[in-house]
Amino acid sequence: MAIAAAAVSAAYQAAAKIGGESIGAGQGAGFGDFLTHALKDAVGTMKAGEQAAAQQAAGQGDIVNVVNAVNQAEITLDTVVAVRDKVIQAYQSIMQMPI
Amino acid sequence: MDLATSMIIAASGMRAQSGRMRVIAENIANENSTSATVGGDPYRRQVATVTSDFDDALGATLVKSGKPVEDMSDFRSQYDPGNPAADKQGYVKLPNVNPLVEVMDMREAQRSYEADLTVMEASKSMLARTVDLLKK
């Protein structure tokens, strides 16, 4: 079981890095912090996309930039949502564990 | 993120090809533009230039459209004494634009743009399908 635990820890670290924050053991940062960071990151990318779209609507900037920014935002948000769903699913599995 | 980078590179290619397309549009539109003054030079054909440009922040070589250069080949000459731009002999200088060359150039820009689009689509679907693994 030690191997599985190490794998879970590594997966969690990798997921935490997507949110721009490395959470080490004993640092006191939890899943909430990770989610906050990841969401902030996603919101930042979304804002960049919106800004590019607004510029395009105002007649400046070019459509390729808009497509790129919106694409980036979409993928970031998708990743964050997928990771959140996965972790919540794991949490629920634990909560439903018969004691 | 290599896939995100490849999308940015493809976008730079698309931008360069749109710049090239703009120059081609100018050439085609000005195919018959004569000089405003008698005996003066008409519109001179522009040639789009595309250079590669290493982006340090991204760590990748992007495409950059450079300043268009002028095609110094000879102008066409046509006998048209009624034209206000005609010289004393009745010849009018016409731009050195060959519509066939422009159409071929346009096709090339179009295909290149489509290739970049395909790269973008492929990168995006690779990324999206990787994220999809989490959703199972």
What is the molecular shape of chain B? Answer: elongated
Total helices of chain A: the number is 3
Distance between the termini of chain B: 23 Å
Q: What is the radius of gyration of chain B?
A: 22 Å
Give me the strand/helix succession of chain A: HHH
Low-confidence stretches of chain A: 21-26
> Which structural category fits the helices and strands of chain A?
mainly alpha
Report what the structure shows.
The complex is a heterodimer of chains A (99) and B (136). By secondary structure, chain A is an all-alpha fold. Chain A contains three helices and no strands. Chain B has 136 residues and is α+β, with helices and mostly antiparallel strands. Chain B contains two helices and six strands. Chain B has helices spanning 2-29, 99-132; strands at 46-47, 50-55, 60-65, 69-70, 76-79, 91-94. A two-stranded antiparallel ribbon of chain B has the order 1-4. A two-stranded antiparallel ribbon of chain B has the order 2-3. In chain B, strands 5-6 form a two-stranded antiparallel sheet. Chain B starts with a helix and ends with a helix. Classes of the chains: A mainly alpha (99), B alpha+beta (136). The interface between A and B is medium-sized, with 14 and 15 residues.
What are the SSEs and their pairings?
The complex is a heterodimer of chains A (99) and B (136).
Chain A: H1 2-18, H2 31-57, H3 63-95
Chain B: H1 2-29, E1 46-47, E2 50-55, E3 60-65, E4 69-70, E5 76-79, E6 91-94, H2 99-132
Antiparallel strand pairs in B: 1-4, 2-3, 5-6
Helix pairs in contact in B: 1-2
Key traits:
heterodimer; A: mainly alpha; about 0% strand; elongated; B: about 140 residues; alpha+beta; two-stranded antiparallel ribbon; 2 helices
